[in-house]
Amino acid sequence: MIHVVEDDAAVARLITGTLERFGYRHAVFPTGGEFLRQLRMQSPDLAILDLGLPDMDGMEVLQQVRGRHRFGLLIATGRDDTHDRVMGLELGADDYVVKPFEPRELIARVRSILRRYQPEPAACAQPPGVACFAGWTFERGTHRLVSPEGVEETLSLAESQLLIAFLERPNQILSREQLLAGRDVSALDRSIDLRVSRLRKRFEQGGHSGKFIKTVYGAGYLLAATVTWR
């Protein structure tokens, strides 16, 4: 089930019509309050969230959702402002699309997010493990990141997937395509750069340096650290 949180009836019809053509069930909520009340009874697999809602700012809705729920979140916004996009990703959105958008682009992003939240088949599931690097500790199974001083926090699913990609191949240049791990997102999409920036900020909290995640211009990114798994 996909929840569409959109007050513009014409845009809502465009989104739901596209979802129907590709076989996705959906429900529409014209206000943030109605959407949040529905979450008390049932969570969707993914929510498509407009930022310009009539009763509350979409960023506030996003913050409330990420504090209590774990499901896919795609921002669909008319705000063509990098600050809003970065803030949305930092608050826990999985991706964003700017209006007006092509229906095929919307579906590609919906599919990409839904795949991230699908449990892996048991035969392919990665064994739980703990990675130690540059004084930090990361638990694969719980997404828990522990600083050198013992401060703990839990990463989002998107952040964890990105960090695991670095930890599994340390001291190697990883292209944007490799970090996207074959998802249905254009290699020219810059959202991976925003995710790397957000991950760096996790390590910079408390006076630490996130410089061990290095940008290799024209090639991609590299984790410059020794990693041990246990």
TrEMBL record:
Task: State the name under which the record lists this protein.
Answer: Response regulator transcription factor
Q: Does the keyword Cytoplasm apply?
A: no
Sorted UniProt keywords = DNA-binding, Phosphoprotein, Transcription, Transcription regulation, Two-component regulatory system
Stored InterPro entries:
CheY-like_superfamily, OmpR/PhoB-type_DNA-bd, Sig_transdc_resp-reg_C-effctor, Sig_transdc_resp-reg_receiver, WalR-like, WH-like_DNA-bd_sf
Q: Which domain of life is it from?
A: Bacteria
* Classification via SUPFAM superfamilies: C-terminal effector domain of the bipartite response regulators, CheY-like
Please report a single Pfam family linked to this protein: Response_reg
- Gene3D superfamilies per UniProt: 3.40.50.2300, 6.10.250.690, Winged helix-like DNA-binding domain superfamily/Winged helix DNA-binding domain (1.10.10.10)
Q: Which residues form the OmpR/PhoB-type domain?
A: 128-225
Residues in Response regulatory domain copies:
1-114
- Name the DNA-binding stretches: 128-225
Q: Which SMART domains match?
A: REC, Trans_reg_C
**What organism, scientifically named, is this protein from?**
Thauera mechernichensis
